[in-house]
Amino acid sequence: MKRRAAFPSKSCGECNLCCTELKVDTAEFKKDGGVPCQHLGAQGCGIYLTRFKICREFLCGWLLTPELGEDWRPDLSGVLILQIAQASLPAAYQPAGNGVQFLITGGEAAIARPGFGEYVTDLVSRGVGVYLTATTPHALVNEHLQPMAAARDLPGAVRTLTHLYRLAAAARDKKGLLRMLPHLYGLHVEKKRAQIKNRSK
Ligand code: SF4
Ligand code: SF4
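A: This is the predicted complex of the input protein with iron/sulfur cluster.
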């Protein structure tokens, strides 16, 4: 998808991640999430001049956020950012405005990338509703990350995000509960660590 950029310095370039990863369900156009659009070819959108309204109007979070540099472009970072409408958030997160969803397409390497944990932790500190997904139903992650954000524990936040991502990926790959148990245990350990760190301040 080649779209106008929200900011003049940004454009989709070679990226077409949203044409593959996103589910679309409008009257004129439907597609499943996680599969390439039938109109997507090697050169990008095959019906570019007549593409659907939703395709013309869509802007991902990277295009909408001036402080995210070129290295955050979704196809380069493995992270597709989407805005979540303020009105659809739990009441506790509405005062901070729209929520932010991180769709991880680049695996654990995308979470370990410099700047990712910092950006997510900063959003959590500011009370923004933060969701994580791996082309699965998304999960609100603020409660898991709040202790690390309060303790300014960046490595702990990245470990927690990795556990949450592994849970999402296991659910996507339909792996059993047994495969999820270590990650659930890891989340529990991270939460306890952060609580101890907070108490010792
Ligand atoms: S994910 Fe963002 S940058 Fe990539 S094609 Fe879609 S709108 Fe453009
Ligand atoms: S119609 Fe074109 S712009 Fe829209 S999702 Fe398909 S390939 Fe992307």
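The longest strand covers residues 79-84. The pocket of iron/sulfur cluster (ligand 2) is lined by residues 1, 19, 37, 39-40, 45, 47, 51-52, 55 (CB under 6 Å).
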